[in-house]
Design goal:
- There is one protein chain.
- The protein has 645 residues and is of the alpha/beta class.
- Among the domains are: 253 residues, Rossmann fold (3-Layer(aba) Sandwich); 122 residues, 2-Layer Sandwich (GMP Synthetase, Chain A, domain 3).
- The chain is built from 21 helices and 31 strands.
- The strands form 8 sheets. Strands 12-11-8-6-7-14-15-24 form an 8-stranded mixed beta sheet, sandwiched between helices. Strands 5-4-17-16-18-19-20 form a 7-stranded mixed beta sheet, with helices on both faces. A 5-stranded antiparallel beta sheet has the order 22-21-23-25-26.
- β29 and β30 form a beta hairpin.
- The longest helix has 17 residues.
- The two termini are 29 Å apart.
- It binds adenosine-5'-triphosphate (ATP) and magnesium ion (MG).
- The site of magnesium ion has 4 residues, from loops.
Amino acid sequence: MTDPEIYPVPADLAARAHMDRAGYEAARIAARETPDAFWAQQARRLDWMSFPTKIKDVSFNKEDFRIRWFEDGVLNASVNCIDRHLPHRRDEVAIIWEGDEPTDSETVTFGQLHERVCRLANVLKANGVQKGDRVTIYLPMIPEAAYAMLACARIGAVHSVIFGGFSPDSIAGRIEDCQSTFVITADEGCRGGKKVPLKANVDKALEKVAGVKTVVVLRHTGTDVPFVEGRDLDWGVETDKASPDCAPEPMKAEDPLFILYTSGSTGKPKGVLHTTGGYLFWASYTHELVFDYRPGEVFWCTADVGWVTGHTYVVYGALANAATTLMFEGVPNYPTVSRFWEVVDKHQVNIFYTAPTALRALMRDGDAPVKASSRQSLRLLGTVGEPINPEAWRWYHEVVGEGRLPIVDTWWQTETGGALISPLPGATDLKPGSATKPLPGVELEIVDAEGAVLTGATEGNLCITDSWPGQMRTVYGDDQRFFETYFSTYPGKYFTGDGCRRDADGYYWITGRVDDVINVSGHRMGTAEVESALVLHDDVAEAAVVGFPHDIKGQGIYAYVTLNKGVEATDDLRKALVAQVREEIGPIAAPDVIQWAPGLPKTRSGKIMRRILRKIAENELGALGDTSTLADPSVVDDLVKNRAA
Ligand code: ATP
Ligand code: MG
């Protein structure tokens, strides 16, 4: 790979950021050497009903396995996100909502947020929801989704948010897995000018799974939907009747806050359980540090609340820090591909955080739709979800950010609760494609397949050797699966499942899932690097690379390539792409097969499902596995039909 360029910390940021270089180094050392004192001090950022005296109690070993943070502390997450801001910010905007149509938007103040959350919390209580009960939330990206999450938090119920794009089967599976008895949904959602039949999907799901006693239905689009007598309640009618005050439930720090199912990129989704104190702390701490958030700024994370990114940075982290958080119901390309940037101008967004998949899609349409907007309000950009190809990074930096905005590439997982590896705007020089360095308190190790620790500049499997407050506590209802999945591969360590390279400056580069690592004639290669070399080509929009059995090399490289609009797929182009990879990485990485792919199979959170591509490349068409979290299953049919022989 070409030697990456470095983008130094802008001088003004170095001078006034929450954390500068010296502060970062000091915090790293303090978190490592005096963890109890360090985290106790940091925990003061939350509002506790009873401040914890026990700070950290952790072992990753089988004999005495436990993960506990702030154990005797008592708090309520909704109080931290709402009530404590009321004395100073009652009339300030907590949520800006931008609808699917550019004509629809709305603001919600902290005072209004308080009243609406309390009313809904009282409706839940009146209908028998108790502390610890699981409540399923299936809503579009509207403020009511945040109200529903915070209403659960207020009374100690455990929410399980399901992305509004999921099918009845997926809903039923998730309801069954956590034995949820209560569902909150809406008549319909709107995405890209199309209606999403949320209530109808819930009705179908509830034909397949028993146990749900009550469904609260929000009238969002106002379309007529059937109500099941004795089961379905009208959100508007019920909340109007309810009291606007609801005393918050005192929660122990280790009481569950929510369950969230992972994206399903690698198999059956896992019900990740997060707790009240550690998770909320990590959400708030990282939101402030990573985005260098300052009061009064408008923060826009484009992720849906159905993903962990939406939980942590649209709702909990942002609101705990009294941010103005923007919720967008629509999609980046409706009504036009300028939509993101129009919304930035309309609401004067200061911090913008999105996914590489969205950027790559927008890049296909060129610079003009971006340049049609001002974007002068922006001060920081971020990405999350996948490795960002340096090519996309540079486009984001130069075109969207006009070369003046730092980009925070945040590596984390549903399991980690919040960002773990990320630049800090005032402390970290940037390298395109690298998530850079671990946050204070995050202890990384790269190990080889046998678990031997690799030092210096190296590449291998990414592990975390010690706990951080935002760590998941279990797979819901399956402590055994939790331990086996994350702590048994390399005993005493949390194994992320991701491959990673560390360069001579100590920067971390995620190379993709370890399962996706390709071994060509004994050379191990991450999929991300080969893909980045392919998308460097002007004609290529997106690429996904997998290994397949090869008689001589052990594994060969099979590349699926999506071309830019209007580009013709020719043999010459194929040759040019192979040449480009040879040049960028070396002959060893040259693809053996290139298949033109009009679309790639992605999860609904936008990640490429390489395990399906691998099966197609291996010609194991009967064993494609769980495809229920795919955004568009028809993509797979096309790839199978046009499989390169
Ligand atoms: P499942 O665990 O069900 O297979 P998933 O891993 O896609 O699904 P998430 O928790 O949403 O579910 O995604 C976390 C993964 O996303 C990480 O393990 C990593 O592979 C990838 N990822 C997230 N952010 C980044 C980033 N900034 N750079 C590189 N990879 C990233
Ligand atoms: Mg995962």
